[in-house]
TrEMBL record:
Family per record: Belongs to the chromate ion transporter (CHR) (TC 2.A.51) family.
Organism: Paracerasibacillus soli
Keywords: Cell membrane, Membrane, Transmembrane, Transmembrane helix
Membrane spanning residue stretches: 12-36, 89-110, 116-137, 149-181, 201-222, 272-292, 299-320, 332-350, 357-376
Membrane topology annotation: Multi-pass membrane protein
Pfam families on file: Chromate_transp (PF02417)
Signal peptide region: none
Intracellular or extracellular location(s): Cell membrane
The protein's name in its UniProt record: Chromate transporter
Length: 397
């Protein structure tokens, strides 16, 4: 019994250490985060096989909320149960939350979003995503049909960039693939991941998610308690966002600037700081909460905006685990996974490449970092440090 308990503690500690390191070094937005996760969890530690990772990414693209945070929660749950998911989430999220609360508490504006080392970190994101795309494409698009599906997802998500385009591309890919492979037997890599969550817990989480979404606005209108209105604004913003962290910004601005809880200048200063810190962009909520009500407001805002993502992830994983092992669903999932590859390539170009590689020097730095990661196989943290240093040096050239 003690040995089993010690093993659990070691697993939770390992999850904490790895997720904190990712939280300190994962720059570049949600798609870049998926690249970092792929490098650390799949390639290096092999906590999850390629197919299960792609399945999990596809699921989280369907769900509203911060996709990269939800993927991190899912990996933590698979590795260490529900507590493992909580630890994985906290480790990945708290570094940027703390940084933004400190920023909101002590400073009004840094202007660091234009600093040279930030430009270097953006180039690191290009390299990490490119490496992840190459690895996933090799395994998830082995035949012409799935290459065509990936190309379709790439074209659609590049030409029509809306919050629902990714979901539509994944859905169409799943339907097409279901019919393409319904009568064929294809040797697929077997999924080894298992999410230790009961269906009872899944139902409870989904019920709580919809219950809060429906009743918080009612309770807000019936009472004049400020923290309920505060919680409701962040919870609804986190519940209704498809397409990543950038989509939540106009929702948050609409909720808090016109109401006078913070002014436009404070909002924009925080947005600049959020771009300059690692981790999920949803942590911008912690800055807003800290401006309104100090560090307590920052922590409450973080809890409120991420709670929907947590409830949806825990609520759907038990059923997803059963669905993806169903032979009738496997054909559809092969197309879904191929579409994820196309979506990642699309995101690699825009916004990651277009906002990062602006000069020949930027391309030179990207090539050096890519060689360090892919050919010399150096650990990701050395790529991050080298990228930051390189960006700082090139800013003086």
């Amino acid at each position: 019994m003690n040995e089993k308990k010690d093993n659990k503690l070691k697993t939770w500690l390992e999850i904490l250490i790895v997720s904190v390191r990712l939280g300190l070094t994962s720059f570049g937005g949600p798609i870049a985060h998926l690249g970092y996760f792929h490098e650390e969890y799949i390639r290096r530690r092999k906590w999850m096989d390629e197919k299960s990772y792609a399945d999990l990414v596809a699921l989280c693209q369907f769900l509203p909320g911060p996709a990269s945070s939800q993927v991190g929660i899912g990996i933590g749950v698979m590795r260490g149960g529900v507590l493992g998911g909580i630890i994985s989430f906290l480790g990945f999220t708290l570094p940027s939350v703390v940084a933004l609360i400190i920023f909101a508490t002590f400073l009004h504006t840094f202007g660091i979003e234009d600093a040279g080392w930030i430009s270097g970190l953006k180039i690191v994101a290009v390299v990490v995503v490119a490496h992840a795309v190459l690895g996933m494409a090799k395994k998830l698009t082995p035949d012409l049909q799935r290459k065509a599906i990936a190309l379709f997802a790439l074209v659609v998500t590049l030409l029509w960039q809306t919050a629902y385009t990714q979901i539509g591309a994944i859905l169409i890919a799943g339907i097409v693939s279901f019919y393409l492979y319904r009568q064929e037997t294809i040797q697929e890599e077997q999924s080894e991941a298992h999410f230790p969550i009961s269906r009872c817990l899944g139902y409870s989480c989904l019920t709580l998610f919809f219950g809060l979404l429906i009743f918080l606005p009612i309770l807000r209108n019936l009472t004049s308690i400020e923290w309920i209105a505060f919680f409701d604004s962040f919870y609804r913003s986190g519940s209704l966002v498809f397409g990543g962290g950038h989509v939540v910004l106009p929702l948050l601005e609409q909720e808090f600037v016109p109401t006078g809880w913070l002014n436009e200048q404070e909002f924009l200063a925080g947005y600049g700081a959020a771009q300059a810190v690692p981790g999920p962009l949803f942590t911008f909520a912690a800055y807003i909460g800290a401006v309104i009500n100090g560090w307590k407001g920052g922590l409450l805002a973080m809890f409120a905006i991420f709670l929907p993502a947590f409830l949806l992830t825990l609520g759907t994983l038990p059923f997803w685990d059963a669905l993806r092992s169903n032979p009738k669903i496997k054909g559809a999932l092969m197309g879904v996974n191929a579409s994820v590859v196309g979506i990642l390539i699309s995101a690699l170009y825009h916004p990651i490449w277009t906002s990062s590689v602006l000069t020949p020097i930027d391309l030179v730095l990207a090539a050096i970092l890519f060689s360090m990661l892919v050919y010399w196989k150096l650990p990701p943290w050395t790529i991050v440090v080298t990228g930051a240093a390189g960006g700082l040096l090139t800013s003086y050239i």
